[in-house]
Design goal:
The chain has one helix and 13 strands. It is mostly beta strands and 197 residues long. The protein has one domain: Porin, CATH 2.40.160. Strands 1-2-3-4-6-7-8-9-10-11-12-13 form a twelve-stranded antiparallel beta barrel. A hairpin with a 2-residue loop joins strand 11 and strand 12. It is globular, with a radius of gyration of 17 Å. It starts with a helix and ends with a strand.
Length: 197
């Protein structure tokens, strides 16, 4: 293939045109932390359960753009799983590849679980394959508040890093504010704003 970047962009555009907007939800998530972690995600879920997702992820020495499409499955009340296939482009090391991931959401009996697991498959550049669990949160709901724990892990070439610690969420009409303090291979204070419309 002559230009894999053009192919990946065309595939994302084709997925967008197949998703007829009957009734939809858009979610925007912004994250910042004391470890200079940066994250911006815009996801659109169509009434037919097709998911389009674009996100930027930055840490010192790495800046990545993920463009993906998937489908939201709802196997039970209050449970959704959305497998998503992403094209991944990195600024450093000419990183190119694909990420197969899944977003899990559970909201049952006053408990919530929210998390994402994925694996990056390198197709070009100097970045190795990696597997990650991104902000796996377990919280107990009390009115507008949620209290619980947040965890994350990252594995590449047999080396694993992880973080875990308490998290607190305050839900409002527009979405939620989230703060967490996580410890492990590093110490991180993280602030998140989620907007849904």
């Amino acid at each position: 293939m002559r230009n894999p970047d053009a192919f990946l962009a065309a595939a994302a555009l084709a997925a967008a045109t197949l998703a007829a907007p009957l009734s939809a939800q858009t979610v925007v998530e912004l994250r910042a932390s004391t470890t200079k972690y940066r994250f911006l995600d815009v996801a659109h879920i169509f009434a037919n359960h097709v998911v389009l997702d674009a996100l930027y992820l930055g840490v010192p020495g790495m800046n990545e753009l993920y463009l993906g499409a998937g489908y939201q499955l709802r196997p039970a009340a209050g449970v959704s799983v959305a497998p998503i296939l992403y094209a991944v482009l990195g600024k450093e090391n000419r990183e190119r590849g694909a990420c197969l991931g899944a977003l899990l959401s559970v909201d049952r009996g006053g408990w919530k679980v929210l998390g994402f697991v994925g694996h990056f498959f390198r197709t070009g550049g100097g970045v190795s394959d990696y597997t990650f669990v991104d902000a796996l949160d377990l919280t107990r709901v009390s009115g507008r508040w949620e209290l619980g724990a947040s965890a994350g892990a990252y594995e590449t070439r047999g080396d694993m890093t992880w973080l875990v610690g308490p998290t607190v969420k305050r839900n409002d009409r527009r979405g939620a504010w989230v703060a967490s303090a996580r410890f492990g291979n590093d110490a991180e204070l993280r602030l998140i704003r989620i907007l849904s419309f």
